[in-house]
Specification:
The chain is an alpha+beta fold. The chain is 23% helix and 40% strand. The chain is built from 3 helices and 7 strands.
Length: 140
């Protein structure tokens, strides 16, 4: 699957449409995704910041529904805006990680990939934390 598939699912949901209608000043600030290679803990979240309330709302994209979840803010500083006109394919992210593991001669298998879509110095970036067998962690 690709990111734009989930974005379209979000934008077509009644939960999101209602949120945008009630909060036109809200803006996208992050995304969080997990690829669970050994279980079923796959998650898809796209987050929006509401400046008037200084709150973040995460939209959890499940197979059959979209759930709006208010989040605790951990900083007084407003998060940066992210442009949602980005696209990436989750399988390609995994493929890139596997290729780099091969180059670095890392032989453990991937258990879970956590992907965070963030604004860093005005650019959208993906930060990946990869859990591998034998309690290993890779940062990409």
């Amino acid at each position: 699957m690709n990111f734009q598939f989930y974005l379209e699912k979000l934008q077509n949901s009644s939960e999101f449409k209602e949120f945008v209608k009630e909060n036109p000043e809200a803006y996208s600030c992050s995304g969080f995704f997990t690829l669970d290679k050994e279980g079923t803990d796959n998650q898809r979240h796209i987050d929006f910041y509401l400046p008037s309330e200084k709150k973040i709302f995460s939209f959890k994209l499940q197979e059959r529904k979209v759930e709006k979840i208010p989040m605790q803010t951990i900083s007084e500083k407003a998060p940066g805006k992210i442009n949602l006109n980005v696209d990436f394919i989750f399988e390609d992210v995994e493929k890139t990680i596997l290729e780099e593991m091969k180059i670095q001669n890392i032989k453990q298998s991937i258990q879970k990939i956590m992907i965070s879509l963030q604004n860093f110095k005005g650019k959208e970036i993906l930060v990946c934390t990869v859990f591998i067998s034998m309690l290993g962690i890779l940062k990409v």
